[in-house]
Amino acid sequence: MSDEDLWRVLRQIEGMPYGAGQVAALEQLLRRVDASDDRHLAFVTRMQATTAYTYGGEPAKSFVTFAWCLSEFDRDPQPYHQRHTHQLLWHFKYMVNGMLKFPELPLDRTYAVLDDMERRYRTAGHSLQAVHKHRFRVADHVGDTEAAEHWYRLWQSTPRDELSDCAGCDPTSTVNHLASTGRDEEAVALAEPVLAGRLSCTEQPQTILTALLMPYLRTGRFDAARDAHREAYRRQRGNLSDLWEISDHVEFCTLTGNEARAVEIVERHLDWLDRAPSPAAAMHFAATTAAALRGVGDLTLHRRAAGDRPAGEVSAAELVTELTARATALAARFDDRNGTTRQSEWIAQRLAVAPTGEHVPLSASLRRPRRPTGTPSTQAGPASAPAGSAHPVTTARATAARVADRVPAVPVPADATAADLLDFADERRRSHDLAGFRAALAAWDERFADADLPAPTAAHRTELRAAELSDAEDVPGAIAAHRAALAAWRELGDEVRAQVVAARLGVDLASADETADEGMKLLRAAADVLDVRGDARQRAFVHDLTALAFMERQRWSDALEALDRVPAGAGDDAHLDARVALHRARALDQLDRAEEALVEAGRARRLGAELGAADLTTAACLAYAVCAQDPADSVTACDDALAVAPDDALLSVRLTRARALMAADRAPEAVDDFVEAVTLCVERGNPGDAFLRWELANAYRAVGRLGEAAEVAEEAVIGLDRLGAQAEADRCRHLLAGIYEGLGEIDPALTLLEQLATNLDSPDNLPHRAQVLEEAGGILFDVDRDAVAAQRFAAAATAYGQAGMAVDELRARRREASARYWAGDVKAAVDTVEAADRLAATLAAQSDPAPVVTYELALLAEHGARVLTGAGRLVEALDRLDGVAGRLRAIEAFGEAAQVETFTGEVLLRLERPAEAERLLREVLGGLPAGSRPAQQTAWLLARALDDLDRGSEAAALREEHGIDPDD
User: Fold this and answer.
1) pLDDT value of position 199
2) Pairwise CA distance, residues 825 & 808, whole Å
3) Which of 167, 240, 406, 811 is at a distance of 20 to 30 A from 444, taking alpha carbons?
4) How far apart are the first and last CA of the chain?
5) What is the reported pLDDT for 369?
6) Phi-psi region of 763 (alpha: psi -120 to 50; beta: other; left: phi over 0)
7) For residues 714 and 735, what is the distance between their CA atoms, to the nearest angstrom?
8) In this structure, are residues 183 and 173 in contact, taking their beta carbons and an 8 Å threshold?
9) Greatest alpha-carbon span in the chain
10) Closest by alpha carbon to 50, among 95, 106, 96, 100?
11) Residue 908's closest CA among 939, 885, 928, 878?
């Protein structure tokens, strides 16, 4: 590789984000540079490495590269050294800060570097403001309060210059000092104008926001504290070098009663301790983490693999012991080095941090605070299915069995016999009065449990015991009780009552695969008997239960056929009639008979309201909301449900309402319902909250609240991964990548897209993999990382080709050619155009190409012409453009057609054919909006053509008309 190539690689590396990737690339380059004989390149590469190590989380390595550059600078001064003097003097600050963080480095060496720094600053005529600041830092680190105050005053009173820290970082250090000395109001006042200004440093505004966490909190600015935490942590969470600041966020969460969020942050960064950027950062993180975990109880965290330690689970208590010992030991090492007790005292304070009692809501996905829990419940629920697939109506069995607490209470008869009291309980249950049902059975047990009862009464009590167990979702217990009741009624010779119980038993059995056949057999037999011997209500009852069993098995046509056999009016049982209508609505909806489903849901909704049955009304409103074609009608139905919903239905109501609001383009309102749904899900221990967070993140994105969208989507990805929902986790990663891009956080977006491309690396996922690779290429191209963008476009084209998606492959090849051209590799760009041309020839042979094919062929012609122009092949470029604009206009791509014609005019000018260029460009300019960028570009070229035609006055008038600088 030539020296010129090495310089080009260095320039590309300079554009990489700080981190392990940039460090690895620089170290590989250094090996090649040292094998060459370019001293300038060796010096500049090490200068870049010093910065990369500092911000990439490996500051210890920067000591070596800095010392090499300083020695080279002093040993044999060269002209190129002078160009980097400012940067070298700036690096002294990195050295002082870094040396304080490693207890094995003697303090005398730090003082020596400070003295050398001061000498060089004086010699170069610079202010000593930065020197005083770093002397303050050393004094503060060792606990010399008097010296720290002395240097602080000098730092604040000495004029700034170009070697002072930036307009964000210098005030950040001041804020930290003011906060540590209890001057919170001064800290906030100092920071406000800084945050209101423009901060372009890579460390800002996240570092000053982190410094403000405690001042905001202690002065009661809770909203500002919350926003500062969210904004700063989001920017810092991906940078190993920011582990110290991440520790501050852990402590902030602990203090504000957000232990669950503290645990989430700890678990995300726990493995960073094994590769901490410095012992000081490890000490701080270990201490704040131990404090956060001390109050979380019996909790288990996942720790990733590191070195010889495999990945696995570790208890919070075990971590507290381990991390406390680590932080304390590191503090002792620093104090041994410093000859003071400052660090041990400071770490003891960090270890003692506990919630203050003032809860500050931080989570964008939870409405109420919660303490972190251990292993999530495996309880199923409407939120545990992927977004968009969960049916919001409660399950079929729950709809039939679960009753509401909101029905007006009916007093338990005081003088009822044992048989009458059981009949009363039965009626309360059929009327959806759960409280009355329970009260009646409690009264019965108190009065008659020890009585010598007739066999029919005992059989009835066993039957209702099964109902109690079913309501409590104890299916095995309900099955056993139903079997006992069935046997008792048969022994009594009451076959009708026996078949009613058999039908209930059949539904319970049908819910499990291993007993489904037995359950359906019992239901068919019960229906046959009750159709002949039962009354109208019993016939309606058995066919409704049969339908429920079919719905459990997702046999919707069979369910609807069973419901069709229900007698009209359900035997004058209005509650049963409402349930039948509700079940018909659900079956019809699943069979895509939406209009009929809506009618049945409306009938169930009306009957439920007339009966005052809250659970039936709620379920019917939700069914109506699902079936309604107009989102506004869905929202209204959900509003009605919310007004009467029992507590156990609130999750379904909130979720359905949120989705309806999103469909109605009322995303801001949907956010509130999604947040409430997530909160309810978490409170109930339902792991489906991960799916809901995914939907909530999308809602936040829709309303432009991208910071909260990112936070919630990150939580969703973690939760979905834990559930093993790989496909859904990847879809959420895709959403998150788009959110990051919207926030301008390009590198996290690219990291996610790279992970997605890896996850999708299988033949079944080729189209999605190609899409992700192309998106990554587009992001890279937009931020001028053209060489890497070309690689992603090339990989996308290959994947599209393997998937048989020729048009998409052509588009990716076209974009690859452009990226290679702008990366300066014209030869590779020409080769890519030629490869794309071969693919285009196949598509062009189609007899009646679709508009998208015409469009892509036209754009390839234009892009290829641009590449050929860059290669100096102007005649070929002009030939490629012939007829392209006309083809674009034929598919109504007028803007692209004008762009092609403008470029054609440029090529004509390069070929010294200004008369032709003038005619074409004048025609194009007449069709462009005045003042638009395309119009200015076209006018600029037209003025050049006029100049070439010796019509300077016309050219000048044109430039004045379009506001074009004559010197451009």
Assistant:
1) 65
2) 23
3) 406
4) 37
5) 61
6) alpha
7) 10
8) no
9) 122
10) 95
11) 878
Pairs from 408-412 (Cβ < 8 Å, separation ≥ 24):
408/612, 409/433, 409/435, 409/436, 409/439, 410/436, 412/436, 412/439, 412/440, 412/443
Q: Are the CB atoms for 531 and 541 separated by under 8 Å?
A: no
Rounded Cα–Cα distance for residues 109 and 101 (Å): 13
Q: What is the pLDDT of residue 200?
A: 63
* Positions of the chain with pLDDT lower than 70, given as ranges: 1, 198-200, 368-409, 968
Helix (H, G, I), strand (E, B) or coil at 301: strand
Cα 812 to Cα 777: distance, rounded to the nearest angstrom = 9
* 399 to 470, 589, 604: CA distances (angstroms): 12, 16, 12
Rounded alpha-carbon distances, angstroms, from residue 656 to 113, 115, 659, 664, 675: 65, 68, 5, 12, 13
Cα-only R_g, the chain: 37
Closest by CA to 333, choosing from 116, 72, 103, is: 103
DSSP 860-889: HHHHHHHHHHHTT-HHHHHHHHTTHHHHHH
Distance (Å, whole) CA 524 – CA 510 = 12
- Measured CA to CA, the distance from residue 152 to residue 132 in angstroms comes to 7
pLDDT at 399: 39
CA-CA distances (angstroms) from residue 35 to 23, 29, 30, 72, 173?
19, 10, 9, 17, 42
Residue 567: cis peptide before it, omega within 30 degrees of 0: no
Q: How far is C-alpha 351 from the chain's CA centre?
A: 31
CB 780 within 8 A of CB 792: yes
CA distances, 913 to each of 443, 775, 878, 951 (Å): 104, 40, 12, 15
HSE-up of residue 66 (Cα within 13 Å, Cβ side) = 24
Angle (deg, nearest 10), helices 342-351 and 279-294: 30
Q: Look at residue 592 and give its three-state secondary structure.
A: coil
Element (H, E) at 313: strand 312-315
Two structure tokens written together for 418: 């044992």
d(CA 554, CA 372): 36
Which secondary structure element, helix H or strand E, spans residue 81, and what is its range?
helix 79-83
Measure the CA–CA gap between 117 and 489, rounded to whole angstroms.
98
Helices (H) and strands (E) in the chain, counts: 49, 2
pLDDT at 381: 38
Residue 195 confidence (pLDDT): 86
In terms of Cα–Cα distance, which of 167, 134, 136, 162 is closest to 150? 136
pTM over 0.85: no
Please tell me the total number of residues recorded for the chain in this structure: 968
**Phi, psi angle pair for 357, to nearest 5°:** 100, -10
Q: 300-303 and 312-315: which strand pairing?
A: antiparallel
Note the pLDDT of residue 928. 92
Q: Are 598 and 604 in contact (CB under 8 A)?
A: no
Separation between Cα atoms, residue 615 and residue 434, nearest integer Å:
11
